[in-house]
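C-alpha cells help. One example:
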Amino acid sequence: MAVAMGLAACGSSGSSGGSGDSGSGSKTLRVTLANHVWTENIKAALGDFEKQTGLKVEVTQLGESQLSDQYNVKLNAGASDIDVMMYRPLQEGKLFAKNGYLADLSKDVKANKDWDFSDFQAGPVGTTTYKGKVVGVPIITEREVLYYRKDLLAKAGLTAPPKTLDELKTAAAAVKAADPGVAGFVARTDKSAAVTQFSSFLYSFGGDFDKNGKATVNSDAAKQAYAFYGGLLKDSGPANVSTDMSWPEAMAIFTQGKAAFYTEADSLYKNATDPAKSKVADTVGFAPFPAGPAGSKPYNIPSWALGINANSKNQANAWKFIEWATSKEQTLAQQKAGVPSARTSVWANPEGTSTYPKDLADAIAASAKGGVAHDRPLVVKVSQVREVVGQPIVEAITGKDPAASADTANQAFQKFLDDEQK
C-alpha cells in the first residue's frame, strides 16, 4: 500500500554514525529489507528522502529465508556492501550483536531530541539493546491477542469474550458442544511455530523459558502451561488436529468459519477482517489475552528492527535513513497503513489507531502495558532451541505426557545455555 509519508528533518542530529564515521561516506546508500508491507510503504516514500538528503538509496528486498542466508554469508565474511539492515531482534539479534555485526547506535539515538528515542516502548527497546548498547531501532511490534467470533459466542449463550484462561477453556468447550462441526479453539500446533504463541500462556501461568542462565521449561508453571495449551487444542480444537500448523494454517481455519477462538499476533489481524480473505470478517472481535494464575501477560515484542552493519563505510548516512524511516511522521503513516509500531505517541494519537477496529486497539493498549519483551528463548541458536522447547506442546496435543517431555526438553535446553556461557 502506497501511503503519503511526511519527512522528518533528516540531517538535524549531527550523527556520527555510532562508530567514528565522519559523514563523508558514499552518496549511495545500500539498504537490505524484508518482504513486508512496511518495506513497500518505505519504498513508496523514498523519493522524498532522496530529494531532501541528496542520497541515492539502493534497496535489496528479500524473503525471510533469503534474507537470513544473505546475512549469514555476507556478515560472517565482514562484507561492507550492506549499510542498513532490517533484522529480527528475537530470531537473530543476539547472534548478530554477539558477533559484532551491528554498529553501536547509543550516541545516535540520543542526538536528536525531536526524533525522541524515549518515545519508543521499553520492551521492544530492551530487545534491540545488547549489553547496554543500542544496536537497533524497533520498527514493527506484535502482541498476542484473542481473536473470536461474536456470532458463535452468542449462539453458545455467551455475552462477552473470556477474560481468563479458565473462562476461555469453558467457552471453547461450550461452543464445540453447541456445534460439533466448529472448533472451540485453534492456534499454532507445529512445535517450532507454536513456541511464540505458547509463550503468552507460559508467562500468564507464571513461568518463563529460562532465568539467569538456568532452563525453566520444566517448572510447575511451565508444565501447567504446556498441559493447558495442548489440552485446549486436544479437547476443543479442530477434529483430527494436525501438529504441523503455523499461523497460515491456523488462521485459515478461523477465517473459514471453523473456529470460535484463536490466539495470535495482533499484526495479522487484517487476514481476519478483510472480506477478501475472510468469510467471517463481519463477525470477528478482539480481546486482550486472557489472564492466567499470574495475570494477563502476553508478549510485546519487536518483530523487526533496523540496524547498521558494523563494517559499513557509510554509517552516518545509514543513520540518516534510520532516523527518517523511524520518525514520528513515518511511524504514524505506517501504523495507519496497518503496521503496528513501537512508538508510544503514535498509539496515544487517535490517528494512530483510526484504521484499527476499536476493540483491537483497546486489546493492544492493554497488552502493551504488561507485555513481556520476548516470545521465545533469548539465545543465539534460536531455531534449534524452539524445536526443543516446543516438543512438549506436541506431546500435550496428542495426549501424551507433557510433563515428562518438559523434563527432557529442559535438560536439552540447558545444554544450549551452558554452551553459550563458554
Summary: The longest strand covers residues 137-149. The two ends are 47 Å apart (CA to CA).
